[in-house]
UniProtKB/TrEMBL annotation:
Annotated keywords: Bacterial flagellum, Cell projection, Cilium, Flagellum
Coiled coil: none
Native species: Eiseniibacteriota bacterium
Family annotation (SUPFAM superfamilies): Flagellar hook protein flgE
UniProt domain Flagellar hook protein FlgE/F/G-like D1: residue ranges: 96-157
Gene Ontology biological process terms from the UniProt entry: bacterial-type flagellum-dependent swarming motility
Gene: flgG
Protein name, as recorded: Flagellar basal-body rod protein FlgG
GO cellular component: bacterial-type flagellum basal body, distal rod
Primary location group: other
Domain (Flagellar basal body rod protein N-terminal): residue spans on this chain: 5-35
Length: 262
């Protein structure tokens, strides 16, 4: 019965974390480039009360007798399915159609990765994200730019005042990972590389398996509200059932505690 209390408690803790993750997904349903997170569970250590015995032609138990000790959360994984495209007609908005991440230089000099293509221009004319982190490689727009075009292969072309010939300012490079699910979130629509993700493969769009860049659009979150609500109901029901198992174990302990010798 004590084992039952602990086993049910482990299930309640696991479902609580599952509900936290679902709530996080729903909170970011309108976050540009957000990728939904899925939680992975695994069962805990088993107590072996009796092994399976008996070889061919001999009597014995064909099945072992073992009791599990519940479950726990083993990992979280981001699912990088393509989100829907939202047309904005903003020349600095960018969507990556296919694999790849934009690269931004953080204040400490490290590179962060993002699917959020809502680019801005800082006071020096550099392309940055909403937090002011500079796009890598750095691309600077002339102060007298009148229009900007971004091609599907990432080339940035600007038209300046008094000139009839557009100027190519540079090329946006993308990065992809062998195991993108191992990227670590750090807020601000940014992801950080980890050893499990592998080394980044950096190249121009439409090369090395990278997607293409489309100007004037943004990628919406890939969170499906209906799916998350169904998962939320399942997690809630599982939490309730585990809580009832705790109550049942407590009642059984109470009965044993109140036994009297005749």
């Amino acid at each position: 019965m004590i084992r039952g209390l602990r086993t049910a408690a482990s299930g309640m803790l696991a479902q609580q974390m599952s509900m936290d993750t679902i709530a996080h997904n729903l909170a970011n349903v309108n976050t540009t480039g957000f990728k939904r997170i899925r939680m992975a569970f695994e069962d805990l250590l088993y107590e072996k009360l009796r092994p399976a015995t008996g070889q061919a032609g001999e009597s014995g138990s064909p099945n072992p007798l073992e009791i599990g000790h519940g479950s726990h959360v083993v990992a979280t994984e981001r699912l990088f399915s393509q989100g829907e495209s939202e047309t904005t007609n903003n020349p600095l908005d960018l969507i990556i159609q296919g694999e790849g991440f934009l690269q931004f230089v953080q204040p400490d000099g490290t590179i962060a990765y993002s699917r959020d293509g809502a680019l801005k221009v800082d006071s020096e004319g550099r392309l940055v994200n909403a937090s002011g982190y500079v796009l890598e490689p750095e691309i600077t727009l002339p102060q007298d730019s009148t229009s900007v075009a971004i091609t599907t292969d990432g080339r940035v072309i600007a038209q300046t005042a008094g000139s009839t010939t557009p100027a190519e300012l540079g090329q946006i490079l993308l990065a992809r990972f062998l195991n993108p699910g191992a990227l670590e979130g750090q807020g601000g629509n940014l992801l950080q590389a980890s050893a499990a993700a592998g080394d980044p493969v950096v190249g121009a769009p439409e090369e090395l398996g990278l997607g293409r860049t489309i100007q004037g659009s943004l990628e919406r979150s890939n969170v499906q509200v209906v799916e998350e609500m169904v998962a939320l109901i399942m997690a809630q029901r599982a939490f309730e059932l585990n809580s009832k198992a705790v109550q049942s174990a407590d009642e059984m302990l109470s009965i044993v505690n109140n036994l009297r010798r005749i």
